[in-house]
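Quick illustration, no need to memorize.
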Amino acid sequence: MTIPETPRGRKVVVVMPAYNAERTLERTLADVPREWVDEIILVDDASRDGTVALARKLGLRVVVHDRNRGYGANQKTCYREALAERADVVVMIHPDHQYDPRVLPDLVRPILAEESDAVFGSRMLGGRTLEGGMPRWKYYANVFLTACANVVFLRYFTEIHSGLRAYSSRYLGSIALESNSNDFIFDTEIIAQGIARKMRFREIPIETRYFDEASQINFRRSLRYGLSILWVLFKFKLNAWGIWRSAIFR
């Protein structure tokens, strides 16, 4: 099937899981190719700054959590809202300006052409991974955990940790989103669910920026995150072998 040049006739919704993004939101939006987007939904996870007021001023549709529920819970709300709007493709863009949203057309084209169910931006493609400022310890951890995932999933990914992603409505509608964690490990669980459902994946090269306003987790939380990934991979394998079926794979 020919890849369309524009998303005419198909609904592309951008979702932004936000927390204290007031200082970077406008810069992020300025880079979004609006001709490719039908709607932008920002879900605020009880920010303590002016994120909500600014988002509304900028004309975004805004959903506000009454309390801080976590990154995974924020994504759950994002995807629920996008599916309720009958999105054909849902693109997650972090409003902290760490990821470059100008690649959005490359994310959505394979899904619109029905050649893929999910497209991920990868910092590992293109050979310029560390130039954006990624700490070396984070780079090595990224490579190790992705390699573990490849062994377990029997698929090849260059990165499973990117926060710049696009999903088809078919993908999001066929997995148990609500069974996933409310924390950062959500990002790995949703990949494991897609693998279990035989979804098709693709990656594109992206560049990232590391600066003070960009959201990052510290070494201690990163260590806990890494161990959680290994636990998800273990559960995936038990499910594949028919030994134990976790709730996320039901």
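Strands lie at 12-18, 39-44, 61-64, 89-92, 118-122, 165-168, 201-205.
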